[in-house]
Specification:
six-stranded mixed barrel, disordered C terminus, 407 residues, five-stranded mixed sheet, 4 helices, 7% helix, disordered N terminus
């Protein structure tokens, strides 16, 4: 076993282990090797095979109710305007921890006629909806409630009357977690209810690149220095709750020809692992990437990832930098773990595939030309100023302490 600290530069040489983020000079108002104050630790769950679109890969622990019941939940920036929680009696059926409304002294049910009831149809007097099969079997049951949300485990930070959809029966793609925390642009989301401050943004996160590495989710995160470049959030009436930006182009290593992006916005996604491009864009990226990786033997596709290499037995790997160029001058240089996917082993000296994929144009949401997946965002602090309509991608702001990987 060996460990090595490698800075993020334009072209990386990975030797024996994993690369870590180096401090980014002049970009931070807090220590770069620690998470922001009062942030929640983010953990990455073990993956079995290719990650998909359903289960959350990153989790935090929050409290809900009085006294607080600790729950492990995923978080999502593209939610449909609702924080979802497993609630008893569903926990026993799902074999996962769940929130017990009967044990909270501060819980309140949202009335059916309230404007805060998001359900199109509900049963009086509470905001409740039940789906029943023809034979009378209850398929699902949701009750919308408000209660106290506790965020920080060290210095408790609470939000009163935080709305959640209590899923009491039925199935939902939570994986092994107890729910999904809504960070969308919806007015009821945690992002929209973050405290107002001129020195803070709504939230930020750093997604850990491997199991055992630290990450964080910070509500009311420190605002970046003024000299740090941002890109503007864009609006789409068909996708009002999502975070959209303009991606002007892609590049592969310094000096390579720029790859144009078709008309449309880029959607920042957390529950899609790989970055999705339209076929012509992906074909251009794949051609440039393969040309610079020609020294390594090609390997069979891994699922829908079709640009794969057999790196078994090597002691060093040269991987070209893929750069995302956003409107406003912001650029994000992807390192080896943001550019390539190494499967279950997380060992770079094994099978590795380009972590981009092609989707037909009709498969994208209306007005969207690119989906920026979670792997491209790992080990980079992504900051969201929801009210100011800005997004930053800042390398060097994530915790650098981690557990080494066994090779």
């Amino acid at each position: 076993m060996a460990s090595l600290t490698i800075p993020y530069v334009h072209l990386r040489l990975l030797t024996l282990l994993v690369l870590l983020l180096a401090p980014h000079p002049g970009s931070s108002s807090w220590e770069t090797d620690e998470a922001p104050p009062n942030s929640l630790p983010v953990r990455r769950k073990p993956l079995n095979g290719l990650p998909g679109r359903s289960e959350a890969e990153y989790h935090v622990v929050v409290g809900y109710g009085t006294p607080a019941q600790n729950l492990t939940v995923g978080f999502n920036t593209g939610a449909d305007g609702a924080t979802l929680l497993r609630c008893k009696p569903s926990g026993a059926a799902w074999n996962a921890p769940s929130f017990d409304p009967s044990q909270s002294s501060s819980i309140a049910q949202v009335p059916c006629e309230s404007p805060d009831c998001p359900l199109k149809t509900c049963s009086e007097p509470s905001c409740t909806a039940t789906a029943v099969a023809k034979n009378g079997t209850v398929l699902s049951s949701i009750t919308v409630v408000t209660d106290v949300l506790t965020l920080s485990p060290s210095i408790p930070t609470t939000m009163d009357n935080f709305r959640a959809n209590c899923l009491e029966m039925g199935t939902r793609a939570f994986g092994s977690s107890s729910g999904i925390l809504d960070l969308s642009r919806d007015i009821h989301s945690l992002a929209s209810q973050a405290p107002l401050s001129s020195n803070a943004v709504a939230f930020s996160y750093c997604l850990p690149s491997i199991r055992g590495a630290p990450g964080f989710l910070a509500i009311g995160a420190p605002r970046p220095e003024r000299n740090v470049t941002y890109t503007a959030l864009r609006s789409n009436s068909a996708l009002p709750n999502t975070y959209l930006v303009r991606l002007d182009g892609l590049g592969v290593s310094d000096g390579g020809p720029d790859i144009p992006i078709p008309a449309g916005d880029a959607l920042i996604a957390l529950r899609t692992s790989f970055t999705c491009l339209q076929p012509e864009t992906y074909a251009a990226l794949r051609e440039q990437f393969r040309a610079r990786m020609s020294r390594y033997p090609l390997a069979p596709p891994m699922g829908f990832l079709d640009t794969c290499y057999d790196l078994t037995g090597l002691r060093s790997i040269y991987v070209p930098t893929v750069t995302l160029r956003f409107a406003g001058g912001l650029r994000l240089d992807l390192d080896i773990r943001q550019t390539m996917y190494f499967g279950r082993s997380e060992n770079p000296f094994s099978m590795g595939c380009l972590a981009f994929t092609a989707l037909p144009a009709w498969a994208f949401p209306p007005g969207v030309a690119v989906i920026i997946g979670s792997l491209a965002q790992e080990s980079t602090e992504v900051l969201y100023d929801v009210r100011g309509e800005k997004v930053w991608f800042v390398p060097g702001r994530c915790p650098s302490r981690m557990q080494p990987i066994e090779l």
